[in-house]
Structures are given as C-alpha cells and as structure tokens.
Amino acid sequence: MNPAELLVPALRWDKDRGFDQQRPLIEQGIELGVGGYIIFGGTAAAVQDLTSELRERSREPLLIGADLERGAGQQFAGCTGLPPLAALGSLNDADVMRQAGAVTAREARGIGINWVYAPVMDLDVEPENPIVGTRAISGDAAAVGRLGVAWIEGCQSAGALACAKHFPGHGRTTTDSHAELPVVSASAELLEQEDLHPFREAIKAGVASVMSAHVAFPALDASGAPATLSEKILRGLLRDRLAFEGLVVTDALIMAGVLQNETEASACVRALAAGCDLLLYPEGLDAVAEAIGAALTAGELRLQSLERSLARRRQWAEWADLREPPAGARQPLDWAREIACRVVHRLHAEFPSLGERIQLTVVDDDVGGPYPPPSREPFVERLQELGVAVTDANGGADGGGVHVIALFGDVRAWKGRPGYSADALRRVREAAASNETGRTVLIQFSHPRLAGQVDSVAAIACAWGGEAPMQRAAAEWLVNRCRSN
Prior knowledge:
Radius of gyration: 23 Å
Number of helices: 15
Structural class: alpha/beta
Strand order of the largest sheet: 10-15-14-13-11-12
Order of helices and strands: EEHEHEHHEHEHEHEHHEHHHEEHEEHEEH
CATH topology of the largest domain: TIM Barrel
CATH class of the largest domain: Alpha Beta
Shape: globular
Strand content: 5-15%
Distance between the termini: 68 Å
CATH architecture of the largest domain: Alpha-Beta Barrel
Helix content: 25-40%
C-alpha cells in the first residue's frame, strides 16, 4: 500500500501568483500519489484548470474537497455564495436546505470539486463558542438533524460527497480548536441525547463522510485525547455503535487542538490508529508518509485497517467519478438572491423611512487576521443601484439622511472570541451619538444574538454574515423595508 494515498494536502490561491506558488507542492503530491487535495480560494476558471491537471496526472481517482458551508462562492470567485447555515436554518424549510446542498454541489462539480466539507452538524448551544456560531444550523438537535440531512441529500444527489462535521460535536466548546485543545465537560447522557443526534441522522441518511473534532470529551474518553486521536470515540462510538461505514477524515492537521504534545507526524499516526481514514491538510508530506510506513513496520498501525481506509477512499472517489458533472452547473442567481433576502430580518424597533440618501459608517470587526475579510463594497454598490445616494459619515451624520451603521462581526478563527471587540462597540456608540436626529439604523452582519451587545442603537437588523450575498441582500431589505414605511 502507498501511505501517501491517505494524505489530503492543501492548495491555496495567492492573489498575485494564483496557484503557481503551490507548484512545488503540486509536483510533490503527484509524485507521492496523494489521495486528494483541499483547495482554498481562486477563480472558478483557475480551479477548473487545476483540478483537471491534478486528475489527468494522478495515478488514482482523486477526492478534491473544499470548505463550502456557504456555497461554492465562499471559496471561488465566479460561483454562487449562499447565506450561512444558521440563516438558512432560521427558515426551518427542508426544501431550502436541500436546494442549498444541490446548488453547492452542482457548482463544485462544475469546477472539479467532488467533496464538500459541509454541512456543520454541531449544535449552536453555547453563546461563548468562538468558532461555531452562524456556521451551525440551529441549537435544536432535532432541527439540525432534519435540516442537515436535507442539505446532505441535496449535495449527494448532485454528485458530490457531503461531510458531517465536527464529530462528536464542536458546539459546546468555549475555546477554538484552531488555537488550543477545547474540552467539553458535558455528560455522556447529554451528548447522547443532543449532540450525537444530528450525526446519527446523517449516518442513517447515508452521508459519505464524517469529519472528526479536535476536541476532548472526558465523558466519552477519560484519557482526554481529542476525538481525532481517540479510538474510543472513532472506532468504539462512530464505527461500532453508530455503524458508520463511510469515510472518516480529520479536521485540518495544522490546528493546535490536535498538535498539543504531538509532532505532525505522530499526530497523523495516532489519528490513523484511532480510526481516521484520511489526513486533511498535513504539511510535511514526506515526513508523514515515512512515519506511517515506520508505524506499520513497528506494529503501531495495522495494514488491514489502512487497506480498508484506502478501499473506502477509492470507493467514494469512484462513486463521484461515475456521476457526470451536471449540465448547467451554474445555478441561476435568482434563487440564491431570494433566499438571502428572506433571511435578513428586523431585530429591534421600527425603522425610519430611508429617503433617497444615507450617511454610512462602516465598523469592521473582521480585520486584523491572517486573511483579509471580504470587500465591503457590495453593500454600497447595491444601495446605489437601487437609487440611494451613499456618503461616508466619517463617524457622524450631517442630517442629510438616515445614518446607517454597518457592523461586521463574522466568526473568525483568529479572534478567539464569539462577540464584538470593545473597540468595535466603542465605534458604534460614537457613530450613533454623532447623529443628533436619532434617525440611526444598524445592520448587523453577524449572529442575531450579538445584538445584545449593542445598546446604543434601537433600530437593528440582522444580515447574519459579511460576505457579498448578504451585503447585497441587506441593501435590498433596507430599501424595501424603509421605503415601505
């Protein structure tokens, strides 16, 4: 067996060099014979060219995945973006979720992506959770199970593998597994009744893959090992008790939650021993492949177990290959736009009439991390397209129109917190205080519960997330709502 076939390295788009900067890794992956790739960013055309090359040069059928929780447009320019899963879940409509999964998979397949790392099946039950938030469908286990299954059905009916994540549940954490190892102290009974329910439903529905959480669950494994490295959780619970027969993939192996007291190579060996089939986002490909070979020789890994993992990988890669990329892979944008507009909603107070011009203050709490946030121009551009003149309030309004504060506060791995920063809230207060007319509206591009942190504006609307589709939807909602008053 080829140990490298168990590896799924990452290829990242660079705004200046495209995928050219990844050429050494591409050549290394092809030479080693890796089993797949995860792709971050790029234009649809560039990704299609890349995936075509990878398939043509690979010795085995590949699984090529991407994080597409918010549609293919979340990663790839030229594809359709969708509202966050929490926003879709708020509609409580299985048909909407099924269509979202299908739209995502059809566009992904159209550019060569056959494995979608979604949906998130975690529960949104912990307000202090810094990394789940709007990524989760709901805090209600039954709703997450029902709506998540609909998303999975839509995705897999369109020919891409879905992935239920993050098993056995990341929703109760108060720290971020990107930065450290979270520990969930919930009882086995509570986890059984609540957190495991969505995964159980996904397994019954035939989900192709499950992603492990870099989270410790002492009630499930007293050793304190993260689920990714826990044989009790992955083999004993997921494989034996829940009877899951599909692919088990690790969460990204660059994350601190799985690397505490471990080298990357040792974490990879432990993950395979625990029951993972594929290793997502390893960086030292040669070292990891050598460590797997050495562990086989030493008896730390069982050849029969790894051969079963390879068989599962090939089975699902062939499953995807047997499905022709669907005709008309680009879904008309009308449906996505309609759904995005439907999920925007008022949280507090009545809104003043908008008029023909507004003063705009942007408070962006998403800047400062390793990757820049999306452009904030779509909000302004859509307002202007709808006939609204927009001027920069520069921290205050001059009385020439309603003062709109656009507050951006998405979930970001680098933040280490679920809510707004003190600086962002200060800027909102200052902006609101600068408008003597009292005609101030706040559009919150984040989780609706974060409105509880804002006490300086009465009229608040929720637009769930800060990507372009939600910015445009918020602009349309604002104009339609405030002009109809």
